[in-house]
Amino acid sequence: AQSVTQLDSQVPVFEEAPVELRCNYSSSVSVYLFWYVQYPNQGLQLLLKYLSGSTLVKGINGFEAEFNKSQTSFHLRKPSVHISDTAEYFCAVSTSSNTGKLIFGQGTTLQVKP
Amino acid sequence: KAGVTQTPRYLIKTRGQQVTLSCSPISGHRSVSWYQQTPGQGLQFLFEYFSETQRNKGNFPGRFSGRQFSNSRSEMNVSTLELGDSALYLCASSLDGTKAYEQYFGPGTRLTVT
C-alpha cells in the first residue's frame, strides 16, 4: 500500500519570497508523483507530475519539484510567490498497476502575505 | 476542449435519502475516478471506471456505488444518506488509465446531508 505525508499543514510566506512545500511518500513499488492545487470552491488543478526520467520537473505557474528516491520525497518549490498562489496544495501518488487511483496527502495551505 | 463537468454543483439532501451525482469526462477520456473530500478525512478514493467496468475500488461501504456509460459519462450513487456523507465529491478523468497517468478534475459536487 502507498501513503503520502505532507509535513506542513500551513505555510505562511511573504510575497516574492521563496517557498518549499514538503511531501514524503511510502511505497514498496515504483510510484508516479503529482502535485495538485485547489483554490477555494474549485476542483483540483494539476501543477506537475513525475513519471520517470529527470528528477527535476517543472510545472505551471513557475513551480518545480524534485523527486528524491533515496529520501522518498517530492518537495514542491517556487522561487518567488505571489498573492495569487494562496491556495491548498496536495501531493499524490499512484502506481503503474493502479493509475486511476490517486493517494493524496492531507494538504498544505499556502498563505502568501503582502 | 471542454473540461470535466459535474452536475449538480450543489445538493442538499435529508438523512435516509439517496442521491445520484453525474460526471462528464473530457472528450476522449475513458477512465473516470471519484473522490470524496472532507475536512477530517481529506481526499479519499472511491472508485474508478474504465470502459464501463469498475477497475478499482476504495474502502467505502456498499452504499456508495457507481457506473459508467458507453460514452464514458459516469454516475455515482449514495443510498441511505448519513450526516457523515456531507462532502465535496470530485470526479476526475484521464485519457487511458494504462498509458496516461494524469487525472483532470471537475469542480465537484458539494453534498450537504441534513
Characterization of the model:
The complex is a heterodimer of chains A (114) and B (114). Chain A is an all-beta fold and 114 residues long. Chain A is built from no helices and twelve strands. In chain A, the strands form three sheets. In chain A, strands 2, 5, 6, 10, 11 and 12 form a six-stranded mixed beta sheet that branches. A four-stranded antiparallel beta sheet of chain A has the order 3-9-8-7, with no helix packed on it. In chain A, a hairpin with a 4-residue loop joins strand 8 and strand 9. Chain A is globular and about 45 Å long. In chain B, strands 2, 4, 5, 6, 9, 10 and 11 form a seven-stranded mixed beta sheet that branches. In chain B, strands 1-3-8-7 form a four-stranded antiparallel beta sheet, with no helix packed on it. By secondary structure, chain B is an all-beta fold. Chain B starts with a strand and ends with a strand. The relative contact order of chain B is 0.33. At the A-B interface, strand 5, strand 6, strand 10 and strand 11 of A face strand 4, strand 5, strand 9 and strand 10 of B.
Helicity level of chain B, as a percent range? Answer: under 10%
Assembly state: heterodimer
Q: Show the largest interface.
A: A-B, 23 and 26 residues
Unreliable stretches of chain A: none
* Cα-atom radius of gyration of chain A: 14 Å
Distance between the termini of chain A: 41 Å
Amount of beta strand of chain B: over 45%
Note the main sheet of chain B: 7 strands, mixed
How much is the radius of gyration of chain B in Å? Answer: 13 Å
Number of helices of chain A: 0
Identify low-pLDDT runs of chain B: none
Strand content of chain A: over 45%
**In which range does the helix fraction of chain A lie?**
under 10%
Largest sheet of chain A: 6 strands, mixed
Q: What is the structural class of chain A?
A: mainly beta
Number of helices of chain B: 0
Mean of all residue-level pLDDT scores of chain A: 94
